[in-house]
Design brief:
alpha/beta; TIM Barrel; 5 helices
Length: 197
């Protein structure tokens, strides 16, 4: 499983409600990702509160977008860009969370549309985005080499995650969706960074 000397993190959305980020920091959490947007128009109602709270507590912060495969990738990218605004120098890479197939937008493949999202966000925010996905979803639905992007892999109950097609390793691993961290009500996703602060 994870080792304690690797930086530990969590990721949150409105499902976690109000988070006490000072307590989260005191619990040893080094980084946190907050859900910013979903699809073409949705902004997470807790995003701006979390975004400011994470930074104020001295935790490294990142923002993620939940990608809808049947929505316009440019509209989705702009939704995310508008919510985040701009990134500070020490903010983590922006993330696209792609894990569910709901049909395809337009005549492009899912992979081609995903590339449009990545290009649009990178151009606007000046940072290479990271891809969050699960190995079985990725291999069944996309199965294209996106290894020039960092990988955040989700897999639970295993000693080490399977690596989706195209990558040789991961950067972040979401290893639990039912974690407990002081400052967060209820369960929360637990993550680890393969590296050092």
């Amino acid at each position: 499983m994870t080792t304690n000397n690797q930086p530990q993190g969590i990721d949150v959305s409105h499902y976690q409600g109000a988070v006490d980020w000072k307590k989260v920091k005191a619990a040893g959490i080094a980084f946190a990702y907050a859900k910013a947007t979903d699809g073409n128009t949705y902004t997470d109602p807790q995003f701006h509160t979390n975004w400011q709270g994470i930074q104020a507590a001295g935790i490294l912060r990142g923002a993620y977008h939940f990608y809808e495969t049947n929505d316009d990738p440019v509209s989705q990218a702009n939704n995310f860009i508008n919510a985040v605004g701009s990134l500070a120098a020490n903010d983590l890479a922006p993330v696209v969370d792609i894990e569910i197939f709901k049909g395809n937008y337009g005549s492009n493949s899912v992979a081609a549309n995903l590339q449009i999202w990545l290009d649009t966000v990178e151009k606007a925010l000046g940072r290479t985005p990271m891809i969050y996905t699960g190995p079985s979803f990725w291999n069944q639905t996309i199965n294209t080499d996106f290894s020039k992007y960092p990988l955040w892999v989700a897999e639970y109950g295993v000693a080490a995650p399977k690596i989706p097609f195209g990558w040789s390793t991961y950067n972040f691993w979401q290893y639990s969706q039912s974690g407990s961290v002081d400052g967060v009500t209820g369960s929360v996703d637990l993550d680890v960074f393969l590296g050092t602060l």
